[in-house]
Amino acid sequence: MDKYNFKRPKLDIPKSTFQKVFDGFTLIVFTAGIVHLIAVWGQLPDQVPAHYNAAGEVNRWGSKWELILLPIIAAILAIFMTFLEKHPEWHNYMNLNENNIEFQYKNSVLLLNVIKNECVLLFVFIDYNIVQVALGKAESIGILFLPITLTVMFGSIIFFVVRSIRHK
To answer: Which of 56, 64, 71, 112 has a CA 20 to 30 Å removed from the CA of 17?
Structure first.
């Protein structure tokens, strides 16, 4: 199969149970995050944490209206990535051939689903933590936030890339 001239077929890759459950869980957490933000809005000071340094400490304060940006960005990201999940023929592959195309499509769609949900959950967590710091219930996002986030995100990517390479 010539990798430059090959027109990848569009296969119907239905969502696995895991993907449906993960999407549902993320939607529930996302909705709860928005409900929480609405519930505490009146209690928030005008200035809330707007940025954290690598140690998890607040290094910029901004308007509480900036809190609205995180759910908006998360929703746009989720919609876009859900759209891309439906088109695995557009994704990049290293070892695609007639014998493994279905596996590679499923693997790529699952990777995209996991990263999408991790990102949305990350945005919800950050928004929630900003509220906690602004209300004086926490001092920072914590020093472990960055290493844990990077480990989870890159760990997921590495897992699926290795899985793809092993399934030539």
So the answer is: 71
User: Distance (Å, rounded) from C-alpha 85 to C-alpha 163?
Assistant: 18
Eight-class DSSP state of 56: S
User: Is 67 exposed, middle or buried, given 0-12, 13-18 or 19+ CB atoms closer than 10 A?
Assistant: buried
Exposed / middle / buried, residue 150 (Cβ in 10 Å: 0-12, 13-18, 19+): exposed
Chain-centroid distance of CA 94 in Å reads 23
pLDDT digits (tens, 9 = 90+) for 39-51: 999 999 999 999 9
For residue 45, the SS3 value is coil
Taking the domains of the chain in order of start, what are their residue ranges? 17-166
Q: Quick: pLDDT tens for 28-78.
A: 999 999 999 999 999 999 999 999 998 888 999 999 999 999 999 999 999
- What is the pTM assigned to this prediction? 0.89
Report the DSSP beta bridge partners of residue 63.
47
* Rounded Cα gap, residues 155 and 144, in angstroms: 16
Which is it for the CA torsion 102, 152, 25, 37, positive or negative?
negative
Closest C-alpha to 117, from 18, 6, 14, 5: 18
Neighbours of 80 (CB within 10 A): 11
